[in-house]
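A reminder before we start the practical. When you read a complex entry, don't treat the lines as separate problems. The point of joint prediction is that each chain is placed relative to the others, so the output describes one connected object in space. Small molecules and nucleic acid strands, if listed, are placed in the same frame. In the example below there are two entries. Take a minute to note the order of the lines before looking further.
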Amino acid sequence: MANLPIDAEHAVVSLTMAVIHESPTPLLLLDGELGVVGASVSFCDAFGIESATVKGCPLFELGTGEWDVPALRALFSSVASGTPQIAALEIELERPDFEKRCLIINARQLAYHDICHPRLLMAVADVTDARANSRAKNSVIEHLGVRLEEVRHRVANSLQIVATLLLQAARRTTSDETRDNMNEAHHRVMSVAALERQLSASPAGDESVELRTYFTNLCSNISSSMVDDNDNVTLVVTGGGLVTPRVSISLGLIVTELVINALKYAFPDARSGRIEIGYEAQGPNWTLSIRDDGVGMPNDRADNRTGLGTNIVRALAHQLQATVDVAPGTPGTVVCIKHVKVALVSGIKDEATTALASVGGSVGWRSSRQ
Amino acid sequence: MIVEDEVLVAITLRDELESAGYQVLDLTDRHADAVAVARESAPDLALVNIQLRGRDDGIELAKQLKALDIPVLLISGQVSRAQSAKTVAIGSMPKPYSALEMVAAVTYLLARLGGKDSIVAPAGLEVFVSTTDDLAPAA
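Here is the predicted structure of the whole assembly.
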């Protein structure tokens, strides 16, 4: 075959058509009148169009006219009027004997030197399957949301019944000690209940617990039953943070135990005062503190026996990998539950190591008075 | 009036309210019974659980009680359902609640129904109306 001189313009057009033809993405090259100049094999295959008939055919007459969609006309009208590109126009393509397809059309006017022969490039993405998957996923999420609400409803009802039974038992017993125990058990259940209630009111999918709100509700509940109108003990919540429900339930029970303990023993003889519940977090490290300005711990701790509240706090602190430190306040008592996961400042590694090593260590406070 | 399908919960709530000085009508757990009691006694406030005995629905009951000018406080663990009933109830108290919280909620709502705005709403209670006039039954 003789080497014929190749016209440069012809070569460029030929290369362009080859690129269009072989594009794995369905493509159409259109002229200014929206007639098809070239089509990719992928376009013809995807939409059942004879490749031999496509060249020169007006876009809106392709196939059986299924591309004559008002939205597509509007898109090309916009492109022809100078809008360089309309991103992600979504249309539905309906063809006889075929399932409806959901397509995303991108169209743009090509910028090149021959302004007498404008060319438009139309790329088509078939997102039918992706949309169906998305709908199925949303349906599953919605279904799970409904199921979650049902489960929460059942949990709420069950906790309500348990709390009710404890309250009934407390009302009917003649023993003061039993009544106190039942009331404390009621507070423990309500501590869990307050968390459930807070989670139920959270937006779907939000599983973090805002501790300031949670502790405030806990204190309100404890205060309403343990602090009568004549008492002058104030409960204050400071700090706060977001934690998982699993962590919050342990923290809530610890707060419940320590606040009840302080209310029972720190303010005898109608003494007035304040109990401050604080939570501070820095990275993975956090400190929960319950500070009262009451009468302080008894001097003689030799008789301390371990009460249920002490055991609960100790066990939950251990579960949270935290230490429990009970110290005199000025005045009163400060109990700190401290979780140290990493040493934040160079040089205090020993503190972190010591803290972790002593997790689950002994703790005792006013249990001698129980 | 207490309309609640969990009898233990209803009894405890009644005991707490009576201890606080309120008169509580006979406990009911069905829509029809509740309407009959309401027609006969015209309670100042109805505490209605959303889930009632059988397939009875507390929100449907609340609509009928509203038509009788009886204000309703909805009680439920179904937070989204309670939220959907803002036009038929004056508020909602989510389960699980403490009995004392509910007594405080009743005290608050009855005070506001009586025209007093000075009491602070207790924890947990969501009030669906903003003014005392909105709370008061139609004349």
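Discuss with your neighbour: The interface with chain B takes residues 149, 152-157, 159-161, 163-165, 167-168, 171, 186, 189-190, 193, 196-197, 200-201, 216-217, 220-221, 224-225 of chain A (CB under 8 Å). What might explain this?
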